[in-house]
Amino acid sequence: MATVLSVSGSPSATSRTARLLRHLDDRLTAQGHEVIPLDVRTLPPEALLRADFGHPAIVEATALFEQADGVVIGTPVYKAAYSGLLKSLLDLLPQYALAGKTVLPLATGGSTAHVLAIDYALRPVLSSLGAAHITPGWFTLDKDITVGDDGTLTVAPGAAEPLAQVTDQFSLALEGRSTLLAATA
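Below the sequence we write its predicted structure tokens.
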């Protein structure tokens, strides 16, 4: 199966976005994929702020993108766009860091007014990074993501089903890519 890099662009340690991604990571792992989580907020701020391409953490993050067959990018929506923290990382990646990759864009936010952030803010930058295939993304309202006292995540039924569908479509696209690569090898 494929190697998936699951990137959370949330600056918050208690992020619903990151928890939602880890929930989807479990689904992808159950489907046989190797999932590597990357929380951008754990990268050294000085490396991101100074655009230090040679910083060991940035070099390591870049290598994770290189090794991945697919990438899940999750971000909270702020001011109708993806997070500045995510932008800081994406700006430090090589121009075609997503070349040959299948990508699933996901976003969370407080209002349906931000639904189009995936298509009008995030998708263009993913495309400019050379993504081979950007699968349909999904926007989940914050109110549809509940974290229990024990840390368990619950997604409201109206959001859970379409979220599972886009995740499964991404998984199928990865499997198709793997089959195609094996056939051409």
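Residues 100 and 142 are 32 Å apart (CA to CA).
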